[in-house]
Amino acid sequence: MDEFDYVVVGAGAAGCVLAYRLSASGQHSVAVLEAGGPDRNIFIKIPAGFNKTVYDPKLNWGYETAPGPYIDNRRIPFPRGKVLGGSGSINGHLYVRGQAADYDMWGQLGCRGWSWDDVLPYFKRAETRGNDGGDPSVRGREGPLNIQDQRDPHPLSDAYIAANEALGLHRTPDYNRGDQEGTFLYQQMMKDGRRWSPADAYLRPAMQRPNVRVIQRALAERIVFEGKRAVGIEYRPDGGPPVTIRARRDVILSGGAINTPQLLQISGVGDPEWLQEIGVAVQHALPGVGKNLRDHYAVRVSALVKGAGSLNERSRGLPLVAEVIRYAFTRKGLLTASPSHAGGYVKTRERLETPDMQLYFAPASYPTGRYGVTDLDTQPGMTLGAAQLRPESKGWLKALSADPRQKPEIQPNYLMDQIDRDSLLAALKYMRRLLQTRPLADFVKEENFPGPQVQTDADWMAHARASGSTTYHPIGSCKLGTDPLAVVDPLSMRVIGLEGLRVADASCMPTMVSGNTYAATNMIAEKGADLILAG
Fold it and tell me: I want to staple 31 with a disulfide (CB 3.0 to 4.6 A). Which of 4, 141, 322, 328 is the partner?
């Protein structure tokens, strides 16, 4: 039976960091179990390959949400990475930390040591800020993550930013300083024109060490306990019988906001009523496991373009061949594009102290607004999107079987809360104003999604319910805290009431951060590694 000091479950945004940091001294052995396989797919390496990877069944778990009662009972595809690098190998590779106020709120909720001033050193430790390097008081220069500005912005992105400025939103040079309000070009996790995933940044360097072992295609089936102490993981190698791997110090769950609570539940840790429903004996009653699930819900508006090309025309035929050649020789052009190029952070109500809405813009569009699901539209177009930063709506993650291969119930309850609906309504109206504001208006041929027939508040909300989708940011299902639904001790990352078992991933977030969740997950693992090593 194999035995290591630490057994990490999941080689995604958090697990890669843990493998790197926990093994750095050479004093501790680390095993990483990853249910997926290698990240050699060419579309993982090419930044614009997002549209090919995010729904590739070979690279992700292929989840979908339960019918949403507030979004016309739709089920929404809910991809999560099942490959080295996890969702960080298939996502949109945008780097967004969130607002200082997000983390100060964590501190206010009882998570001592997680306020902005506490976590900023870990954001800095993680990154090498490309291009001009940024302000060294808030940006890092020697970390594994390579963060860069866009080198070749599209003219439509420039026009979008200028239209935001015309509506009173100032241009900000760095939205990752802690104060986000403004409009900007998104920063990307890229290096030399290639996606720079957590596997590239952390895992591959760790794999060069003799004290690290990464086991791929290893599906964790249950946590092995001796009394109240976790001592290992029973996993099933690809096509083989179950194998147990033991941890001398800790088992660390880093499967994310879906897989971590599911593994806890099928191992007997969770709400006793839920465990009873799937025939799992209670190992440790912890009612918060799987509760508090939140996600960003985005709604989009698109327009046909005149007087300027978009990425649509460059994505097929001879223009695409030219782009492939350009990328091969210069690492520039269409193939370095991220799903969103420009954006902004705005307040939908004057009385707010900080922005409550994130804006997205792409100089490209999809047929009938089906963002990320199909190839680009055949006509020149552009897409504007918005998502409420800190949704009040929350739901759950619930195992439906003791079998880890059966997909769990994912219910984010999008738009359940009236505040979420009101904020999104204001954002939709703002996006239409942007399309009517110069210089962006100069390039608008017509709004084609949802179209000018949408005029009333009821029309807009019908559009939001019928067309909105996930932004792939689930968090909170094993939250840090001290309240009755807390799952993880913020001072140690231990699962409350158990020994030898810790969690460090996006499931730990007690509330949603203001933006894409990769950077915050990376920070949790960076800080979590220090807390774990401290004993």
Answer: 4
